[in-house]
Amino acid sequence: MRLHLQTGCAINTPLSAPALVSAAVVLCSGFLILLIYDLGHLSTHMMLHIATMNVVAPSVAVLIAAFYPLARHFKTTASGLWAASLIQIVAFWAWHAPAVHDVVTHSFPLTCLTQGTLFIAALTFWLALLTTSANVRWQTIPALLLTGKLACLLAALLIFAPRTLYASTGHTGHVAALPAAASLDDQHLAGLLMITACPLSYLVAAVIITVQLITPRPSPASAAHQNAPVG
User: Fold this and answer.
1) Rounded-to-integer distance, Cα 117 and Cα 88, Å
2) Given this model, what pLDDT does residue 5 score?
3) Can you name the residues that pair with 2 across neighbouring β-strands?
4) Residue 110, SS3?
5) Mean pLDDT score of the chain, rounded to an integer?
6) What is the DSSP string of 91-144?
7) Is pLDDT at 202 greater than 70 in this prediction?
8) Using CA atoms, how far apart are residues 31 and 165, in angstroms rounded to an integer?
């Protein structure tokens, strides 16, 4: 099934559904969290990363796959899919290393570079996911699960760490004045945000793709017979 737009382009809904549904779920959950919690410096930082990688990137990937002719006809191989997965994982962990993160938070250009790098890495991953060849599309499932598990691993470290892992935790502008307990609470909230967003993004997308792969599709002959005029 295809969703036809007024511009004459069409979005292949089975392929775009994993990205669009996961982005929508993460976005709605983010709004609810913002209504309930008062975010600190690290949790705000993490919320921006989640919005960039799990909402904006998959949405832009769907638009590119729909409107850019080359993307609509390009097919990603299994090696291309895993390369894109590796790029996103390495970029995510590299920018979240404590030593790197503490430097980035004190430099606006580096903060912009971080967001841009994570966006490009996530966009590459979601584009690879949407354009993977049909014969290897099953490999998108382990790619999503591996990416989600490694992101959740960092989230678990933030949640269960007995001390702050980053020097710049707490509320923005009041980091130095905050007690250690408040900084640790901010770190725990950042981890909770991440460990919530990961299943809502990567796991939801993997479940949708799994359902699509195991759902029997009508053959072209039967589809033509069903669409044939009666009488």
Assistant:
1) 9
2) 37
3) 12
4) helix
5) 82
6) HHHHHTSHHHHHHHTT-HHHHHHHHHHHHHHHHHHHHHHHTB-GGGGGGHHHHH
7) yes
8) 27
Q: How does 81-92 read in b/e, with b if 16+ C-beta sit within 10 Å? A: bbebbebbbebb
* Residue 185 token pair: 């609470």
Tens digit of pLDDT for each residue in 40-79?
Answer: 888 888 999 999 999 999 999 999 888 775 655 678 889 9
Structure tokens at 40: 């600190």
Distance CA 93, CA 7 (A): 39
Given a contact cutoff of 8 angstroms between Cβ atoms, the answer to whether 59 and 16 are in contact is no
Q: What number of helices (H) and strands (E) belong to the chain?
A: 11, 2
DSSP letters, 182-211, are: HHHHHHHHHHHHHHHHHIIIIIHHHHHHHH
What torsion, rounded to 10 degrees, do the Cα atoms 182, 186, 192, 195 define?
-140
- 3-class DSSP state for residue 47? helix
| Degrees, nearest 5: CA angle 120-205-97 | 45
User: Which structure tokens are listed for 53?
Assistant: 């990688």
- Residue 119 has a CB neighbour count (10 Å cut-off) of 18
Please state, in angstroms and rounded to a whole number, the distance separating the CA atoms of residues 128 and 78.
9
pLDDT of residue 218: 61
Q: What is the mean pLDDT of residues 93-98?
A: 92
The C-alpha atoms of residue 61 and residue 129 are separated, in whole angstroms, by 9
Q: Which among 62, 68, 49 has a CA at the least distance from the CA of 22?
A: 62
